[in-house]
Amino acid sequence: MGGGEADDPQNLRRIAAEAYDYDHDARWADYWSNVLIPPHMSSRNDVVNHFKHKFYQRYIDPELTVEPMVTNSSSQPAKPSVPPPQSSSSTSTTNTRQRSSGSSSRTTSGASANPPPSSMSMRWDQRTIQFSVNAWILVVAVLAIFPLVPKNLSNRAYRLSLLGTVCSSLYSLYSSYGKPRAWNVQALQVWFQSVVVTKDFIYSIYCLSFITSNLCLKFALIPILCRSLEHVAKFLRRNFSRSTLYRKYLEQGCIWVESNTTTLNIVSSQAEIGIGFLLVISLLSPQRNIVQAFMYWQLLKLMYNAPTTGSYHQSAWAKIGRTVNPLIQSYAPFLNTPISAVQKWWFR
After folding, report:
1. What is the Cα–Cα distance from 348 to 336, expressed in whole angstroms?
2. Is 25 helix (H, G, I), strand (E, B) or coil?
3. Which range has the worst mean pLDDT, 24-38, 99-113, 177-191?
């Protein structure tokens, strides 16, 4: 009957997954930015649809079955038809040819037993490098914020964790987007527009703004810790799930991190906004840096509008507005004019 396929639960789930509005879900942009695939594959519709279904399975409907992605679409050759009976001489000739073809096929199969590195092995190498760098960042960042560490060592670990995040972000950008097609203004502009709203680009600028500053804000390491923790937990769970050491000591923590990525992003966005206000307050101190404060607020404006971070920042700013606006109306109405001017610049 024709209605059997329509009533198939998996078919209905696949239809729902294809009809889902991924463009207006901030989690999809964050998920897609962390998928490491070669640039020539990221433009293929079948690859994008495969990862959309995996996203839908992870965040919307865990019962959706996602079939493995087939990267080799070459079809098998058709079997030759059976030849008619021949004489004994032709039969011996045919057998000789079959034996020679059999030996050549065995030689071919033996040669193909060691294929050249595929895109999957390249992706594995990229993920392994990212895991190694982010695990190092996590250890160094914890060392930087640990209260019993000497100040000199703590400050050095602080800058090393920021520098490691810059290297990790730039490597991820290069792996996902490559380099510009040409070194002219137009090609650079096209490449820059494609990467400027990604999370990796935002974090590279975020870390550079603190590496070049004399002001040492350990509070700025909270987003770095959340980012590294998420990368490390994902890699450990996907590649060491059968390890006894992982199951005994790390499994529960990795499961918690993967199931609370939204919470980590909310914490990161609140910390980033709080750092902006700390930089404004620091303008009253001898360590003031007007350029850094202005550039950081430009970065906050980018975070507010970028698809990967916008929903979390918009939610945090809305919560701040609901708390602060009644107090300003009651006790400091003279601040309405400067706040309105700032809001015009912010939404411009």
Report:
1. 18
2. coil
3. 99-113
Task: Copy the structure tokens of residue 281.
Answer: 């307050």
Q: 64: alpha, beta or left, given left = phi > 0 and alpha = psi -120 to 50?
A: beta
Q: Name the residue type at position 294.
A: F
**pLDDT digits over 231-276, tens only?**
999 999 888 888 888 888 888 999 999 889 999 999 999 999 999 9
Short-list 86, 54, 77, CA closest to 67: 54
Listing DSSP states for 289-343 in one string gives: -HHHHHHHHHHHHHHHHSTTTHHHHHHHHHHHHHHHHHHHHHH-GGGHHHHHHHH
Tell me the pTM: 0.64
Of 224, 263, 260, the closest CA to residue 145 belongs to 224
Residue 327: Cβ-neighbour burial (10 angstroms; 0-12, 13-18, 19+): exposed
Which tokens go with 172?
Answer: 């991820």
Please count the residues of the chain.
Answer: 348
Q: What is the pLDDT of residue 221?
A: 94
List pLDDT tens digits, range 217-227. Answer: 899 999 999 99
Task: Tell me the CA distances in angstroms from 223 to 96, 229, 237, 291, 338, one per residue in order.
Answer: 70, 10, 21, 22, 30
d(CA 53, CA 61): 10
